[in-house]
Amino acid sequence: MARILVVGSIARDEVVYLDASLRVGAHNQGRWGGVRLGGGAANTALALARAGDRARVVSAVGQDQDGEGLLRELVAGGVDVSLVSRSAAATTRSLVLIEAGGERTIINLARACVPLPADLARLPADCLYVRSADPALTPIMAQRAEWGLVVAHVPPVRAGCLPARILLGSAGDLDDTFLTDPWTAGRRVAGQYLQWMVVTHGGEGAVAYSADGPLRVRAPRVSVVDSTGAGDVFAAGLLHDLARGEMMEAALATAVSWGAASVSYAGSVPLRGFLDRG
């Protein structure tokens, strides 16, 4: 059982299913899809817990019914929430618009500030995964990267802001300058610690770049129902293997398999048995 610290958001997602692709500046028809658990840290941690890892989340929720309900759902899913603060003024909320083909658009409505544990640099874990842009994490990541596995999500892409051994990002979130030479761009962000820069390309799969060249894994063809949280589940697959000492080639294949499986069901919370779909 790998021990993985996940820093990021726990959110209340308010879902609307659109009848067609989102049209900017036009009237769009849709239907209410209800409220569900979301947020990058929550999605990743639940996938890890489903796979048998010990996922411990560093996050924050408000002192409200939304926060209480989200924490109960995480605990029921096997996630350790002992480092989740209840000090936020309100729980993070997002509006999720899902098109007929499964593509999603996320609109952040409120975000809870996450206070970092004073001993985060020293907490025992096999891996630290950062899904946050908080600059206060930079020195903590640098300390941990000296002796352990640190994985971080981009953006942000400020020089030196994410001292990590592995960087992970979606091609859709990165500009052409970054994508022209992902390894060099990743080195600028992570500095001397970087070993791999991983870029996901949706249904096409993913590429991991290193000083020795790229590794590519194609995604299997699947019927897309809902792409919400697919990148987070991809990250979980990568962390699951890397925290156990697997090489990048195997970890990337696992991540692509998990990410592909995650788009085949509605919602961002991994279903029990979802690994059998990869």
TrEMBL record:
InterPro entries: Carboh/pur_kinase_PfkB_CS (IPR002173), PfkB_dom (IPR011611), Ribokinase-like (IPR029056). Residues 1-110, 192-268 form the Carbohydrate kinase PfkB domain. GO terms for molecular function: kinase activity. Transmembrane segments: none annotated. Keywords: Kinase, Transferase. Gene3D superfamilies: 3.40.1190.20. It comes from the Bacteria. PANTHER family: RIBOKINASE, SUGAR KINASE. This is Putative carbohydrate kinase, PfkB family protein.
